[in-house]
Design goal:
about 230 residues; two-stranded antiparallel sheet; Arc Repressor Mutant, subunit A; elongated
Length: about 230
Amino acid sequence: MEDADKPENLVELTFEETRVLGSLIEKELTTPEYYPMSLNGLVNACNQKNNRLPKTNLDEDEVNQVIEELRIKRLVHRVDLVGSRVPKFQHNAEKELDLIKAERALLAELLNRGPQTTGELNNRASRMFAFDGIADVEETLQELMDREPALVGNMDPAPGQKEKRWFHRLAPPPVLEEMSDGGSVYIPGPDKRIDQIEEMTKEFTELKDEVETLRYQLREISDEFKNFRKQFE
């Protein structure tokens, strides 16, 4: 692919958007007979107990809202099949992110399960694509990381572990959280929208205070002007 065809800026997704996109890619590769997916099928895929970390309990309204957001970002579109009254949905990652099948398999695993080692990805993504061993997986990941912008990155090993872990860059980097039992787990990075809302709230409060100060000063000027006029009445 020519550099001119590559996206200048990588799309940024929320955790819920990564779960929906990851589920769509996974089902496209593992159960093509049930793809594109209905809203109900997609909800079940997002909330399934296996191959998902962290686990979720999204409802239809939440998933439907996420679909609309992903449609705006051109990563998902609706499909109306002839003879079916139920709308179906499919991802557009192959075109929008320029992903071949091997790359989609690895990205789906990272979207659905978070940071993983090369060996874990080799084992888990094999149900979606027949890699030629760990070296093939490593090479594919390296190609995804060498892109501009990079689609994946790697992080230092967790405490007590030796292997680096890969993560996708479609959302804020995951955070390593210590558990009460002494272990650790990766959790989704903080949603930047929350920080943006907090910043907007702070700016609004400061602006409101400035307006109140100006109103007070204006009132004082008005009173002084009235007193000044009385001297000439």
